[in-house]
Amino acid sequence: MRLKSGSTFVLSNHTEILEALVGLKDVRVLAFERRGPHVSLVIEQTPDEVFCPSCHTRAHVKERPVISYVDLPVYGSAMTLSWKKHRMRCVNSACSVGSWVLGDHRIAAKNCLLTTWAATWATRQVGGGRTVSEVAKELSCDWHTVNDAVATYGGALLEADRKRLSVTSAIGLDETSFVTRVGHAHPRYATTVCDVEHHQIIEILPWRNYVDVAACVNQQPQSWKERIVYGAFDMSPAYAAVYAVALPQAAQVVDPYHVISLANRALDAVRRRVQREQLGHRGRRDDPLYRVRRVLLMGEEKLDEHAAQRLRSLLELGDPDGEVAISYRIEERLRDFYRSRDPDEARTMLRELLKHCLSRAMPPEIQKLGQTIETWFDKVCNFHVARVSNGPTEALNNLIKRIKRVGFGFRNFANYRIRVLLYAGKPNWRVLGSSVVR
Ligand SMILES: [Zn+2]
Description:
The chain is α/β, with parallel strands linked by helices and 438 residues long.
C-alpha cells in the first residue's frame, strides 16, 4: 500500500487501522490527511472489467471524480471519506448510454452523502430518540444530510422488517396531528395503527377518514385480517366503520383511556359552569372551585386523607348545589367499572351508572356523557372481555409529541412516519445491519 503525504502528517505506520476503517478487501487507502481538526481518508476501489449495462461492450474509464462522504468521527475528529471514483463510458458509438459512475452500497448508498457506517449509526441514534440536529452536530455536517440518510436507511429497515406487522391479534386506531409548524393554524391528521398487544406502533397512515383508512386495512393480507380478534378505538364513528367493514370478525373495544378523559372533560365543564354561576367570572386563583380543579381529576384512591378533606371543604364552599360533587362521584363509579374483574358484574355496574347519569336531575354535562357512553355501551363493556387498551398508543403518542417538540414540526409526512416508526415502532435493528441499501 502506498500512502501519499497529507498536508500536515502521514500515518504511514497505521495502515492496519486505516484498512480496518474501511474494512473492504477491494478498497485501497490512498491517503490519510489531517487539516486542523478535520481528518480525511482518501480511498479508491479497484474494479474488475466493467461492461456497459446496455450493450455489454467493455467500458473505458472516462474520469476519476473524487466524491466526499461524511464518515464517523475518528478519535473525536470529524472525518471525511474521499472516494476517488470511476466514471465509465461506453465506447460503442451505436449505444445511447453515455457515462456512469461506479458505486458500492457497502461504502455509500446512491444519493446518500453519509457513508454506510455513518448512515447506519445516525439512523440508530435518531431511532433511539436523539434529534437530527444533535447527530448532525456530532458528525459535523448539516441537518439535511443526516435527515436524508435517516429517511433512506430507516425507510429500508421498515420495508425489510415486515415481521413486526404480523404478530398481533389486537390493533388500535388512533388519531394524531402531525404538522405543528409554528404559526400553522391547520394541523394535518394521521391515523396511528398500533399493536395493542405488544405496545408498539406498526404503521402510520396519512389520513383519518373512513374511506382511505378502510381501504388500507382492507389491502392487508387475508391471513393478517383473520388474525385480528380485537380492534380498539376512541369512539370515533369513522374507525368503528373501518372495523365493521374491513375487519368484521374483530370485536370492537372502546378504549378506557378515552372514556375516562371524556368523563374528565364533563366534570371540568360542570366545575367551570358552577364557578361562573356562583361568582360571575372565570376561575381565579383563590376561588374554591379553581383550587380543586386538579384534585378533581385525580382518582379518589390517589388522594390522602388531607387532600380528600381539603376537596370536601372546598366543594362545600364553592358548590352549594352539589353538582360538582355528584359529577365527581360519577367519575369515581366509572373508574370502579374499569377496576372490576368480572365482565357481568361490570356490565351491571355500567348499566346502573348510566341510569343515574341520564336522570334529569343530573347536570346537563353529565347527561351528555351518559348519552355518549350509552351509544357505545357494548363496545365499552368489551374492554372486560378483551383487556386490551389503546392506552399504550396514548403513551406512544406522547413520545410523538416529544419528537415534534424537538426542532420543528414535520412538514413532510414521509419523514414523520419514518421517525415515529423508528422511535416507537420497535423495529428489529438487526435487519438494518443485514439489509442492503442501494
Ligand atoms: Zn453501451
